[in-house]
Design a protein that fits this description.
Layout (H helix, E strand, L loop, with lengths): L5 H16 L4 E2 L3 E3 L3 E2 L3 E9 L1 E9 L1 H12 L8 H24 L4 E3 L3 E4 L4 E2 L6 E8 L2 E11 L9 E3 L5 E3 L6
Antiparallel strand pairs: 1-9, 2-9, 3-8, 4-5, 4-6, 4-7, 5-10, 9-10, 11-12
Helix pairs in contact: 1-3, 2-3
């Protein structure tokens, strides 16, 4: 993964959490992982397609998720119910949306998928041949692990709707039905 794709996500996480949760994030040491991801108690997953392709994961404990959404939504959440889940997923969505704007400003257009929320510690998620940069962030509410498995799309991708297909084949999304 090219490190030039890292800063937009770290900056976006800091900006969004400072604005929405009134907290300052502290970054820990980065690591590069090639193995499958073992999910935290709560993991938000979003995909990117376009000139940058891949997946970003935001992992945290249930307690951290509850504390963040309690602050953002200005109400106390004691259980990780549907509204709390939606709030955590939306935080991941807003961070990734902000990062995609920063990528576009640097000349890399990428669209993002809607967020998916994975619950359950020790769920294994494979990013196949994408290495992941893991960025630990911490604040008063707990830890947020940002996993970035993104790269520049191959030059043979013909448009911004390029999507990788498992097995090494790739095609434009508009050609899937042909």
């Amino acid at each position: 993964m090219n490190v030039k794709f890292l800063n937009p996500f770290v900056e976006a996480a800091n900006e969004v959490l400072e604005a929405e949760a009134q907290t300052v994030m502290k970054r820990g040491n980065l690591t590069l992982q090639k193995s499958s991801l073992t999910a935290d108690e709560v993991t938000v997953m979003l995909s990117l397609v376009g000139q940058v392709q891949g997946v970003v994961f935001y992992g945290m404990s249930v307690a951290t998720g509850l504390a963040l959404v309690s602050r953002v939504m200005a109400q106390q959440f004691k259980t990780f119910d549907a509204l709390a889940q939606s709030g955590v997923a939306e935080l991941g969505n807003v961070i990734t949306g902000r990062a995609s704007i920063k990528l576009a400003e640097a000349g890399y257009i990428a669209n993002i998928s809607p967020p998916a929320l994975i619950q359950g510690q020790s769920v294994t998620i494979s990013t196949f041949d994408f290495s992941r940069i893991v960025v630990p962030l911490s604040c008063e509410f707990g830890n947020l692990m940002v996993h970035l498995a993104v790269r520049e799309s191959p030059s043979n991708a013909r448009n911004a709707n390029y999507a990788p297909v498992v097995g090494g084949m790739a095609m434009a999304v508009g050609e899937l039905g042909k």
